[in-house]
Design brief:
317 residues; alpha+beta; 34% strand; single chain; six-stranded antiparallel beta sheet; nine-stranded mixed beta sheet
C-alpha cells in the first residue's frame, strides 16, 4: 500500500476506532484423541467412495476463522509427504440448506435412506466457506505425533442405507497418528450460529481415518452446551448422513463421538446493518491483536486493505 493510501485508510480507521468495541480471540478445541474411533474422511480413492465425517461447533458471535488443526490416522510407514491435499467444508445444522420435503417430518426427519436427520449436517455445504489446498484457499503442514497409535474401532466401508446401517464398525486399526495444521487464506467468515466442520484429507495410496475425541468434551478441550455427535456419509448416501455412534456402531446404549479438531480466529464486534458496525469491528480487531497489520497477518489476509474490505462487506450484509 503506498503512503498516501495508507494515510487515507489510517484516517478513516481513526474515526472508526473512536467507537468503543469489544471482540475476542476464538480458541475452540474438542480435546485430544481418545483411541475409540477412526472414521474415514477423504476424497474418492481407488477402493473407497468420497467419504465425509463431520462434527459440530457453535459461534456466539460473527467470527473470522483463520485456522484449524485436525488429528487422524494414516497407514503405518506412510511418509508425511504422501498427505497431498486437504479440503475443509462447513455446514449448517439441518434443516437449513436442506430439502425437508424429502424427509418423513418430525420428530426425527427420517428419510428412505437413513433413520434420522434431526441434528445432522445440512444436505449441502456453505459454498463461500469451502477452503481447498488445491486451489490455494488453504495451506497446511503435517506433524507425526506417534509412529504407532491404535483405535478400538473404525468406520471405513460400512456406511449403508437403512435397514442395514448398523454394521458395528470395521474393527480396530493401528497406524501413524498425524496432526495437520491448517491456515485459511482467506479466513472463513461465519455468523453466530451452530455449524458442522468437515475436513477431507487425501493420502497417496492410503486412507485418512479422522480420530475421535472425548464426548462430552473434557479439558484441554472447550466444552459447550448443545454438543452434537459426529456424523458420516459417502457419495452413495448423500445428501443424507448417518450418526456414527447411534446408527452405525449401535448397541445399548449406543456410543456417541466427537472428532478431534480445533479452530482459531477472532470475533467481529460489529453488527451488520447497524450504525458503527465498521468502527466497532475494526476497533475490536485492533484491540485483539494490538494493531491492524498484526490482525491482518494473523487472520490470513494479504493486507490491511483486504481485512478492511472484508469488514465492509460484512457490515453491508
Amino acid at each position: 500500500m503506498n503512503a498516501i493510501a495508507r494515510m487515507a485508510l489510517t484516517s478513516t480507521l481513526g474515526l472508526w476506532l473512536a467507537t468503543p468495541a469489544c471482540a475476542d480471540l476464538l480458541s475452540f478445541s474438542t480435546g485430544t484423541p481418545d483411541g475409540l474411533l477412526g472414521a474415514l474422511s477423504q476424497p474418492t480413492a481407488s477402493e473407497t467412495l468420497e467419504t465425509e465425517t463431520a462434527d459440530d461447533f457453535i459461534l456466539s458471535q460473527a467470527t473470522f476463522i483463520s485456522g484449524a488443526v485436525i488429528v487422524g490416522l494414516i497407514p503405518p510407514g506412510t511418509p508425511l509427504a504422501d498427505i497431498s491435499n486437504v479440503e475443509v467444508e462447513v455446514y449448517h445444522v439441518f434443516s437449513a440448506d436442506s430439502d425437508v420435503g424429502r424427509t418423513l417430518g418430525p420428530p426425527l426427519f427420517a428419510t428412505a435412506e437413513v433413520p434420522a436427520r434431526l441434528n445432522s449436517p445440512a444436505d449441502v455445504e456453505i459454498d463461500d466457506a469451502t477452503r481447498d489446498g488445491s486451489d490455494g484457499t488453504l495451506q497446511f503442514s503435517t506433524d507425526l505425533l506417534s509412529a504407532s497409535f491404535s483405535v478400538r474401532n473404525t468406520v471405513v466401508t460400512g456406511i449403508n442405507r437403512k435397514p442395514n446401517q448398523t454394521t458395528r464398525g470395521d474393527g480396530p486399526a493401528t497406524g501413524e497418528e498425524v496432526e495437520i495444521s491448517i491456515a485459511f487464506t482467506p479466513p472463513i467468515l461465519l455468523q453466530a450460529d451452530h455449524y458442522f466442520f468437515r475436513p477431507e484429507v487425501q493420502v497417496a495410496g492410503g486412507d485418512f481415518r479422522y480420530l475421535s475425541a472425548p464426548k462430552p468434551i473434557v479439558p484441554p478441550g472447550t466444552p459447550f452446551t448443545g454438543d452434537l455427535q459426529a456424523w458420516i456419509r459417502n457419495a452413495d448416501l448423500a445428501p443424507d448422513w448417518l450418526r456414527i455412534g447411534t446408527d452405525i456402531i449401535g448397541g445399548t446404549p449406543a456410543p456417541t463421538f466427537n472428532m478431534t479438531f480445533s479452530l482459531t480466529g477472532a470475533t467481529i464486534a460489529g453488527t451488520p446493518g447497524r450504525a458503527h458496525c465498521r468502527g466497532r469491528s475494526i476497533s475490536g480487531l485492533s484491540k485483539d491483536f494490538g494493531e491492524l497489520d498484526a490482525a491482518a497477518s494473523a487472520l490470513g489476509f494479504p493486507s490491511v486493505k483486504a481485512l478492511h474490505d472484508a469488514v465492509v462487506a460484512f457490515c453491508e450484509q
